[in-house]
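We emphasize that the prediction below concerns an isolated chain of 164 residues; any contacts that depend on oligomerization or on bound cofactors are therefore not represented. The input was used exactly as deposited, without trimming of termini.
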Amino acid sequence: MDQTHSHPVKVYIYDISKGMARQLSYAMLGKQLDGIWHTAIVIHGTEYFFGGQGISSCSPGGTILGEPDSIVDLGSTEVSSEIFLEYLVALGESTYRGDKYNLFEHNCNTFSNEVAQFLTGKKIPSYVTDLPSEVLSTPFGQALRPILDSMAVNPGGSSINRQQ
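Result of the prediction step, given as a C-alpha cell string:
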C-alpha cells in the first residue's frame, strides 16, 4: 500500500452525560452505564457526525462537546477526500437527512458505524452501538422512550451540504 495515499481514520467518542450516566444509571435503570455516547468519524483533518440537522462537520474536537473522552484508531483508508465528500453528500440526501434522525435507532453512532465500515471495513466499539438496546431493555428505558424518541442531539458544526 502506498503510504502517501493512506489516510488515518479515527472515531471520537464523547460522553454527552459528562459522567452523570456512570453515577445515576444503576439507580435509574438497574444496570451500570459508563456513558451516553456520541461519536464522530475523523478523517482528512475533519470531524464528521450525524444529528438532528443531518450530517455536519467541524475541526476535530470542535463541537460544543469539547474534547472527546476517548479516541479509537480504526486504521487507515485510501478513500480520497473528494470521494469521501461525494459519499457523505449522497448519504446526507438520503439515509442521513436530519429528519431521519432517531435517538435510539438511527443516530450519530449508526452513522459513525456505517462510515467506519465504508472507510476501513471495521465497526466502532460495540459498547457504543449496544447502548440503545441496553437502555430500552429496562422498564425505565421503556417508560422514557416516548419522551426520548422526540429528542435530537445537535453538537454544532457545519452542514456538509453547505460546503458544496
